[in-house]
Amino acid sequence: MSRDGQPLRADAARLRRHVEFLAAGPRSRRRAPRAMGRAEGYVRDELEAAGWLVERRPFDARWQLGATDRHGHRALALKPRLHRRLSGANLLARLPGPDDGPVVVVGAHLDSVDGSPGADDNASGVAVVLETARLLAAAPIAPRVVLAVFDMEELGLIGARQAARELSRGGGVRGMICLESVGYFDDSPGAQRLPAGFGRLFPEASAATAATGYRGDFTLVVHRRSSAAAAETWKRAAAAASPALTGLPLRDPRPDGLAGLLIGLAVPPANHLGRSDHAPFWNRGVPALMLTDTANFRNPHYHRSTDTPGTLDYERLAAVTEATAVTAGSWPDAPRGG
Asked: DSSP letters along 23-90, please?
């Protein structure tokens, strides 16, 4: 709700404008630095215009095990690369006011892979962060919120690793929402595919997908026990935002922390659930959600030159934004032992 008691309403036209600017071409710190700088400046300007205080956090990472950012449909774990040195920067934004107590982080990565304008992956996620900034600036926020725009996700979650380390010191993060490829929907039967082995590991979510004829008409809400209540909050808020948007919660059975990371390496189908910037927060024991349209399991343009603004559904993207703003502003406490 806004300060005057009215529901939070996202603007589909504004979301499209954000995506069209950001996805004018490929953007990355190494392969397309000029475009990356232009995109970073746009994000900063939009956040400041919405009333947020923006801090640029440069980082210099050495000997990082990550991935290649060449185009292709393979998952991060199948594109390993050891990076000797990477220099990048995250953007973190807060509303003016007291700077104490744990925060809820809402984040998305700004970079794209080589050769792709990255409208869905991940201008869609950044656009939601920017529109969420506008909505939360007008809302009475219970938890404190930090908006994060991460660098070098496509190189192996490099920027998010830095941000998770910085923000989680001293229990500084209460929860995290990651927006990863959230704008592509396809209502055609058979549009949604499942990873190999998914049906055995996650029978309920697989059955729910099959019951709709494998239509790509939902947002997957990946969570763990520690963020299960937040996933339900998001699902309810999405239903209230639009009858055309369904939130499908999917529980990752792994625990937060190092044990969950190691299990993912041993069970590859489960590791699909850690393919974005929420994973470094999970690895530090932070309750987190990943919101996604499932990327390469639905979108035929994933990591290709055809991932353009005209392929996205901006009305549904507006509903994703509204549900995200509601969840960030009412983040529930994690269960004990979560």
From this structure: TTS--BTTTBHHHHHHHHHHHHHHHHHTT-EEEEEEEEEEEEEEE--SS-S--GGGSEEEEEEEEEEE
Q: Is the pLDDT of residue 337 over 60?
A: no
Whether 153 is catalytic: yes
List, in order, residues 6 or more apart from 136 with CB less than 8 Å away.
95, 145, 325, 328, 329
Q: What digits encode the pLDDT tens for the residues 271-308? A: 778 889 999 999 999 999 999 999 999 999 999 999 99
Q: Token match 């950001």: residue?
A: 22
pLDDT for 170 equals 77
Right CATH for 12-329 from 3.40.630.10, 1.20.120.520, 2.60.120.620, 3.40.50.150 = 3.40.630.10
Q: Rounded to two decimals, what is the model's pTM?
A: 0.94
pLDDT over threshold 60, residue 194: yes
Of these residues, 153, 154, 180, 322, which one is catalytic? Answer: 153
Domain boundaries, the chain: 12-329
Question: Which of 129, 162, 102, 135 minimizes the C-alpha distance to 22?
Answer: 129
Q: How is residue 320 written in tokens?
A: 């994703």
